[in-house]
Design a protein that fits this description.
This protein is mainly alpha-helical and 414 residues long.
Length: 414
């Protein structure tokens, strides 16, 4: 009875997912397959999965051949109609839903739901996806290809092992910094191009903060030197990414130090709210300012990314030296140096030490705050070194407000 009930639930899910995708095809008045056809295809996949469990996996292969024997003649016949769409989207979607129906029986229900939902979204957003592609020019595609080369071809080939003194040199981690800078710069440009300046600023800033606020700041500072850029928008992206860093810090504290959340989170939340207010003000200023010209060509950040990667290595050695010299007694010094390039390591480590009772909660959040303020100072130096005057002024005002607020919290919080 239990096994039969499970099978019925899986078949019911397969049928429902087929109806979901078929609903979209029916709404589009597709001539090849609609509501009933997609439901039957998913159900056929589910039944094939049941037979495969009893007689072997060859059943699914045979079912696929039978399904193709039915589908291909229909597609060939549709080509004779001049008004018909010669694409294979519906046929491929049917194959996917057949496989989706099969995996529901094999125990992968959640994966089946995600796949069916993704298929429906892809089918429904056809026009939006095509319009997005049409907005991408040849130069954009070249930069995307370059990112694919350094991120998906070169990066996986590098050894993810540590070498040298104190095992600091990790080729994979160092090159990942280069990939992040190039990728964030390109993402900011594409977000502005595809979503418009207002939405693009917010999306690019949030994305940059979640990945690497420091790398984002470097990319945006370099972009500001482009004559076709809009510095206020780039400054807003930098400040939004800086604010998102503290949201990420809170999430890491909740994960690594659940036992001290009540003591550690309040001052960090206060800092997050302060940084968020600064970011919102910058974003509103961008919306009210006259829209300046946008970049006609995507930024090429590979050279500056490599330079920053080398700088990152130098800072790593400085952090290691500080840890060896000062130890736990110089925790604030270590936090200040560690926070220059990376907030994650010091946040996770400190939260864990506080959770296990090795340091008290009051010290823990102050160490994390010290790292955050050091990170703001480091990004300020990068902005001064790499940015233009129109970009530097709003970013410095925002960073100064964040630093002053953070310092006040650090000194005055009870």
């Amino acid at each position: 009875m239990t096994a039969g009930s499970e099978l019925l639930q899986s078949l019911g899910l397969a049928l429902a997912l087929g109806l979901l995708v078929g609903l979209q095809r029916e709404w589009e008045h597709n001539r090849i397959a609609g509501l009933r056809t997609f439901a039957l295809v998913s159900l056929f996949g589910g039944l094939s999965g049941i037979l495969a469990e009893a007689y072997g996996g060859w059943v699914i292969g045979a079912a696929l051949i039978a399904f193709a024997a039915i589908t291909v003649p229909g597609y060939i016949a549709s080509l004779r109609d001049r008004d018909a769409d010669p694409g294979l989207t519906t046929e491929i979607a049917m194959l996917v839903m057949f496989a989706t129906g099969a995996i529901t029986i094999l125990g992968h229900r959640m994966i089946a739901v995600v796949i069916a939902g993704s298929v429906m979204v892809l089918l429904q957003e056809k026009k939006a996806l095509h319009q997005m592609v049409y907005k991408i020019g040849a130069s954009d595609l070249r930069e995307i290809a370059r990112l694919v080369l350094i991120g998906l071809v070169i990066l996986p080939l590098l050894p993810n092992k540590s070498f040298g003194a104190n095992d600091l040199l990790n080729p994979f981690a160092i090159w990942l910094i280069v990939v992040l800078i190039v990728g964030i710069s390109l993402a900011a440009y594409l977000a502005s191009t595809l979503l418009g300046q207002a939405k693009g600023v917010a999306v690019a800033g949030i994305f940059g903060g979640l990945v690497s606020s420091t790398a984002t700041t470097v990319s945006l500072a370099r972009c500001s030197k482009n004559a076709a850029s809009h510095p206020p928008a780039l400054a807003a992206m930098a400040l939004i990414s800086a604010a998102v860093v503290f949201v990420r810090v809170i999430a890491e504290v909740m994960i690594a130090g659940p036992g001290v959340i009540q003591q550690v989170l309040p001052p960090l939340v206060a800092m997050t709210v302060l940084a968020g207010v600064v970011a919102v003000v910058a974003y509103r200023f961008t919306l009210r300012s006259k829209a300046g010209p946008t970049e006609e060509a995507p930024p090429s950040e590979l050279k500056s990314a490599v330079v920053f990667g080398l700088l990152y290595v130098i800072v790593l050695f400085a952090v290691s030296h500080a840890k060896e010299r000062f130890g736990l007694a110089g925790l604030y010094t270590v936090a200040a140096i560690s926070g220059l390039t990376d907030m994650d390591a010091i946040t996770l480590t400190t939260a864990r030490l506080s959770h296990t009772g090795q340091i008290d909660a009051a010290t823990a959040w102050r160490v994390i705050m010290t790292a955050g303020l050091a990170n703001i100072l480091f990004k300020t130096a990068l902005v001064l070194a790499m940015g233009t005057r129109a970009f530097i002024k709003p970013v410095l005002l925002g960073f100064a407000a964040m630093f002053a607020g953070g310092a006040a919290i650090l000194l005055l919080w009870p």
